């Protein structure tokens, strides 16, 4: 029997709550495909606060709310008084009087914690600089769908090993018994706090946690995962990150060193070609046409990135349902 009071970070989750939400997402996905979705959140109003841009998270929360019979309302950074004329506490208390749930995406993790403290309704973290917990659920659902099990798999996160996506993936995986390897240069390896938490989770579940700069031991890896080298808000760091990470690109040479049936995951958006203005600017400045993942790997059969993106919807729906019902 599991119920959650919103979702702020991976630290609040237990193994059984993670597995129950993944199972519920499975069911909700099947129900939607069969045209049998139910309006479990009928009459609820959901605020979507975005201080950073988003495609998947915004779309997933919007469609999930609509599918569940709730009404989502997008409140962008420049639309509301928050941060300019109104404090976090006042904003949280006012929104909590009108809305039944609040999603927040922004930089400062303390903001989502403050919303949860003062709003009196479930608050969901749609990404902060520290955690991206809704992404982690989509990652686990994608692995479960593909392999049929989670415990005992080995995931290798390659690149900026201390970013929000890496943090949530690490803790979520270790809690359910998935081995985690972080392949990153020293400067971009997880900090002491995250490492200690990860070690505790690994000890509890019996999974292994391993941080390395070397592309050895990749033969045991089932899932190769990467994310952008420069996260939102870090745009001045391209040169430094390219210098640190160009040897950590996920390309076919790296994939060939991994397990025979390994898959590739990426939270997206990804810099794998020159079809964006940012990628074109980087190419002009640094001469690179692909960054964290090669176009070949991104488009390969091993790449499940679009299933993973779709699974944002089904898992966010499960997280919302688990915030109001015992599942
Ligand atoms: N993966 C993810 O969070 O994507 P968006 O930034 O588009 O929401
Ligand atoms: N680490 C990335 C994730 C985007 C979904 C960022 O924070 O920009």
Could you characterize the architecture of this molecule?
- This protein has helices at residues 15-33, 56-67, 88-98, 109-119, 133-147, 164-175, 192-205, 238-245, 252-256, 277-286, 295-298, 305-322, and strands spanning 45-50, 71-76, 101-105, 123-125, 154-158, 179-183, 209-212, 223-226, 263-266.
- The radius of gyration is 19 Å and the shape is globular.
- It folds into 2 domains: 10-132 and 311-322, Rossmann fold, CATH 3.40.50.1370; 135-309, 3-Layer(aba) Sandwich (Rossmann fold), CATH 3.40.50.1370.
- The protein has 327 residues and is an alpha/beta fold.
- Strands 7-6-5-8-9 form a 5-stranded parallel beta sheet. A 4-stranded parallel beta sheet has the order 2-1-3-4, sandwiched between helices.
- 43% of the residues lie in helices and 13% in strands.
- The protein starts with 14 loop residues before the first helix and ends in a 5-residue tail after the last helix.
- Strand 1 (45-50), helix 2 (56-67) and strand 2 (71-76) form a beta-alpha-beta unit.
- It is built from 12 helices and 9 strands.
- The model has no long low-confidence stretch (mean pLDDT 97).
- The relative contact order is 0.16.
- The structure holds phosphoric acid mono(formamide)ester (CP) and norvaline (NVA).
- Norvaline binds at residues 127, 163-165, 227-228, 231-232, 267.
Give the secondary structure arrangement, pairings included:
Layout: H1 15-33, E1 45-50, H2 56-67, E2 71-76, H3 88-98, E3 101-105, H4 109-119, E4 123-125, H5 133-147, E5 154-158, H6 164-175, E6 179-183, H7 192-205, E7 209-212, E8 223-226, H8 238-245, H9 252-256, E9 263-266, H10 277-286, H11 295-298, H12 305-322
Parallel strand pairs: 1-2, 1-3, 3-4, 5-6, 5-8, 6-7, 8-9
Helix pairs in contact: 1-5, 1-12, 2-12, 3-4, 5-6, 5-12, 6-7
């Amino acid at each position: 029997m599991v119920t959650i009071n919103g979702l702020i970070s991976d630290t609040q989750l237990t193994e059984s709550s993670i597995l129950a939400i993944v199972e519920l997402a499975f069911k909700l996905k099947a129900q939607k495909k069969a045209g049998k979705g139910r309006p479990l959140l009928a009459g609820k109003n959901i605020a979507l606060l975005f201080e950073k841009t988003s495609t998947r998270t915004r779309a997933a929360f919007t469609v999930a709310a609509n599918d569940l019979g709730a009404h989502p309302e997008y409140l962008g950074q420049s639309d509301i008084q928050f941060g300019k004329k109104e404090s976090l506490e006042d904003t949280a208390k006012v929104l909590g009087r009108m809305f039944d749930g609040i999603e927040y995406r922004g930089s400062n993790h303390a903001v989502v914690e403050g919303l949860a403290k003062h709003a009196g309704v479930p608050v969901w973290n749609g990404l902060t600089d520290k955690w991206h917990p809704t992404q982690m659920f989509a990652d686990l659902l994608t692995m479960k769908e593909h392999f049929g099990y989670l415990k005992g798999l080995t995931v290798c996160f390659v690149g900026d090993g201390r970013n929000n996506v890496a943090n949530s993936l690490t803790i979520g995986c270790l809690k359910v018994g998935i081995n985690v390897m972080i392949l990153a240069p020293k400067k971009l390896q997880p900090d002491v706090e995250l490492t200690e938490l990860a070690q505790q989770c690994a000890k509890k579940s019996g999974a292994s946690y391993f941080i390395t700069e070397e592309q050895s031991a990749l033969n045991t890896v089932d899932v190769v995962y990467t994310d952008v080298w420069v996260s939102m808000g870090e745009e001045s760091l391209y040169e430094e990150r390219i210098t640190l990470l160009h040897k950590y690109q996920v390309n076919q040479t790296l994939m060939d060193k991994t397990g025979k049936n390994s898959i590739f995951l990426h939270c997206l958006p990804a810099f794998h070609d020159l079809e964006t203005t940012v990628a074109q600017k980087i190419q002009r400045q640094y001469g690179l046409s692909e960054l964290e993942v090669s176009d070949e790997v991104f488009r390969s059969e091993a790449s499940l990135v679009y299933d993973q993106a779709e699974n944002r919807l089904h898992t966010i729906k499960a997280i919302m349902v688990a915030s109001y019902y015992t599942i």
